Each structure stands twice: as C-alpha cells, then as structure tokens.
Amino acid sequence: MTRSLLVTGAAGFIGANFVHYWRARHPEDTVVAYDALTYAGNRANLAALEGRPGFHFIHADICDYARVLSTLREHAVDCIVHFAAESHVDRSITGPDAFIDTNIVGTHTLLKAAREVWLGGPTVMPHRFHHVSTDEVYGSLAADAPGFHEAQQYQPNSPYSASKAASDHLVRAYHHTYGLQVTTSNCSNNYGPWHFPEKLIPLCLTNILRGKDLPVYGNGSNIRDWLYVEDHCRGIECVLEAGVIGESYNIGGNNEWNNLAIVELLCDEMDARFRRDPALAESFPDAAGTSRGSARELIRFVEDRAGHDWRYAIDAGRVSRELGYAPRETFETGIRRTIDWYLANENWWRPLLVV
C-alpha cells in the first residue's frame, strides 16, 4: 500500500533526516515536505530531493489553517508525520511566545485540518497522525531513577517542554474525543547530519574547527540519553507500520552521557582526526587539535541554564518488545559518522554561524 505523507518541519534537523530516510526506504510513497523555513529550517537540507517524482516542497506555516487544509486535499495526504516545533530550550526561556504559537497552536491547527479532511466526510478515510515529541515532557530524573516510561507523569520544567506536553495532550484528546487515528513518540536527544549548530554536538564540532570556546553549562554533570538521528527515523517507521492507534512509544538510544564527557569525547575524536590527517590543518587552519595542542583547551564552564533539568533517560523497552525496534548505531559509530559529515559539509554549516 502506498502512502501520501505530509511531513511538517521537513527542512529542520530530524524532519530532513526523516524525509531522506523515508524516500530511500519507501520510494513509491509521495512525500510532501512542509516547512515555514524559520531560522532552523533550511531548504538546502532537502536539495538532493528537489524535482524528483513523488517529492513536493511547500513553504508555509502550520498555523495557516487554510494552507494546511488545501495541502491535505491537493496531495490526498493520508499520513501526517509532525516534527515542526520550536525546540531550543534557551530560546524558550528568553522568548516563549514562539513556542506557544508553533508547538501548541500549530499542532492544534494540524489536528483541526486533519479532522476536517479525514473525518468530516460521509466515510472515514484511512489515515494516521503521528506526533513527534520529546523526553523533556517528563521532567528531570534522579541519578538512580529508572528511565522514563510511557506511563510516566508529565512534569515539564521549561516553556519548551511545557509547550510540547500541551501538544501531546491535544493529540491524545483528538483521538479520544473525535476518533482521529494518532500515535505519538517521545525521543531522547538526537545527533547526526543537518543538526543546526546551536545544539551541543554540532556547536562543539564547528567551534573546534574554528578555534572557538566550547561552552559547558555549570559543571557539565547534566546527563542526556543520545540517539543517532537515523535510528530515530527507524523507530518512527516502526511505529507507523506496527504501532497501536492511540498509543505512545518512547524511542531512546540506551546511551547516557553527561555533557562534559560528551564535549571531551568530541575534543579527543577531533584531535585524533587531525593527527591522522595533516591535510585537515590546511582545510581548517583555525582549528584546535593541531600542533597548538588539544581541543580540550577550548572548554569553558559558563553559568548554568535557568531551570536546567539534571538527567533525562528513556526506557525504550516497550518499542523494543512490541515493535522489534533497537538502535543500530553505537555512540562511537554514530559520532564518527557525524564528525565525517561535518568535516565534509563546511559549505552547509559555516553560513549558519552567527560569529
């Protein structure tokens, strides 16, 4: 059975990776990439797909009800995969309004349009609304606490996570109230290609290559579970193909690291690359990891983020048991693939840097 997918936030980090993954795995399906192209949305992420049969790009806002409605009808969309979100916690602290608009109002706009198209006629169209959420809705974990599970109480601690929690509840409500066929996935921290350079791993990689400071919040002890982005895409595929309607699935990497250890690992990996390949020093003359010493010398501890959650961890047992999902990349292999990509794609990341 072929599908027509509307992928929101398709020019962002995870959305773009998902579009590439889905087109490679399901070339018979139509993919409609929908993105407002705000600061973290980059149409260049999808350039390799432009003009190909079965791929369409629409530059529009998910809060535009008329445009969403016409897109669903024009392309006979039967599956929405909803990535579009404001997602940077620091930005949500300094400017929460955009997070309320996109993450709550935008999600509700999509749900209203989907209900109108799929449930508003004389017969119910086969459909799926898959909502991509975050582990941050669950709050913060103690050091000895088990990972977040699907029945975990929501305790969001930032405007970002609160807005995502609200969107999760709206998706659930549209299933229980109107019968919309929904699924939700809550993922841990992603990393990999096309990751906007404001986030920890790409920020460190691009700063090392430019000889810039590597800022670490507090003492660097905050812990996150890290998931290679292609493994996340694979997990969503499992949910779309075999997930139970109305249910949520936690997708994690089984891979906890504190922030300082992550930064030190990146420094050591980059140092090793420069030692093995002298040509890198010519390509990136400002980089640490050359004869001037270790990239670790760039690490700078900065004032901690307000309300900084200490630990996130995902219990991915359900998606593993019920859907047969497991990450394919170890952190070591995923980091190597990520470093390879950033070294090979300076033309992509350098224009995105503020300084």
From TrEMBL:
Every NAD(P)-binding domain range: 6-338
UniProt keyword annotation of Lyase present: yes
Cofactor: NAD(+)
GO MF: dTDP-glucose 4,6-dehydratase activity
Catalytic reaction annotation: dTDP-alpha-D-glucose = dTDP-4-dehydro-6-deoxy-alpha-D-glucose + H2O
Gene Ontology terms: biological process: nucleotide-sugar metabolic process
Keyword annotations: Lyase, NAD
Keyword Transcription regulation (UniProt): no
E.C. code: 4.2.1.46
Family to which the UniProt record says this protein belongs: Belongs to the NAD(P)-dependent epimerase/dehydratase family. dTDP-glucose dehydratase subfamily.
Protein name: dTDP-glucose 4,6-dehydratase
